[in-house]
Design goal:
It is a single chain. Helices cover 78% and strands 0% of the residues. With 122 residues, the protein is mainly α. Helix 1 packs antiparallel against helix 2, helix 1 runs antiparallel to helix 4 and helix 2 crosses helix 3. The longest helix has 27 residues. It is elongated, with a radius of gyration of 18 Å.
Length: 122
């Protein structure tokens, strides 16, 4: 991997971790209501399901940038309809655009890596 490709891959990884942390913040609204501890745990788990999906996608992208990047792009497209970000441009920019950009960075890093000539050792 060249230095440029390594930097792009690291930026994509860091961006995915930051995005997961940002999305996970929305789960904290469970603590604002007066619920029993069991209801809080169930609510917290329900709110963190998207974060678990994004963690899984990050793990896959860490191992295989092209496939993981494709998953992030697919998750971005799904989030348009699941989170109704098509209704509000600001929510589209905050929720969907980072997923598409992260996926694009992973795919670009893999594509750039594959274009590099390999040295033959005899």
């Amino acid at each position: 991997m060249t230095h440029k490709t390594q930097v792009i891959a690291k930026i994509a990884r860091i961006a995915s971790i930051v995005y997961i942390a940002f999305i996970s913040l929305f789960a904290l609204d469970v603590f604002s209501a007066d619920y029993t501890p069991l209801q809080i745990l169930v609510g917290l788990f329900m709110h963190l399901i998207p974060s678990f999906i994004f963690i899984f996608a990050t793990w896959i992208a860490w191992k295989n940038e092209k496939f993981g990047g494709s998953i992030f792009i697919l998750l971005g497209i799904i989030s348009i309809f699941f989170f109704h970000t098509y209704e509000n441009f600001i929510s589209f920019l905050i929720v969907t655009t980072p997923l598409l950009m992260i996926g694009g960075l992973f795919v670009y890093a893999e594509k750039t890596f594959r274009k590099l000539p390999t040295k033959k050792i005899l």
